[in-house]
Hints:
mainly alpha, elongated, 9 helices
Amino acid sequence: MRLVEFFLNNRTEVIELTVEHLWLVGVSMLLAVVVGVPLGILLTRRPLLNKPVLGGANIMQTIPSLALFGLLMPVPWVGERADRLTILALTLYALLPIIRNTYAGINGVDHAVVEAGRGMGMTDGQLLVQVQLPLALRVILAGVRVATVISVGVATSAAAIGAGGLGEYIFRGLAMVNNQLILAGAIPAALLALGADLGLGLLEKSLRPRNLG
């Protein structure tokens, strides 16, 4: 009950921090999709790049968030503002599942379907846009779903460098040894992650081909 009272008494601040959190995650996910999907497509065309690209994205995921913030701080322009720094870090964290699922989704398209398209005179570009990407979309979306949930969680660490978000309550609660403040940040962040997972899961499910007849 005390936590509910806290939310009611501080609803304006809670909403502001939630919006900040969503903005950081939303922008970083947009950038991750813009970069990750083309990279995944590139790997299907240039298999030699598979290990270095996926290996690099994998390494990014193994670096703790606060350590990654520290590594990116010297980067010109990016390190000058906490929100830019956070968005870049979240984008790097989100790349692996998006690249990997894009690569797997396109490679998983039935070879007979691709050959049938070629037999109809389709170019590689037409095959990609009209055949492979539509059939791989559900797998790609699954990668975006995983990346979004990861980003919502990692974004709580952004408060440590002054980027805002729901992590503000968590770090403030840790400093004051106040469990109520910690929960005030952790619960909304967890609900955002669950909501994103559920929403994208439903979208992914809607893309599954329905049985006819």
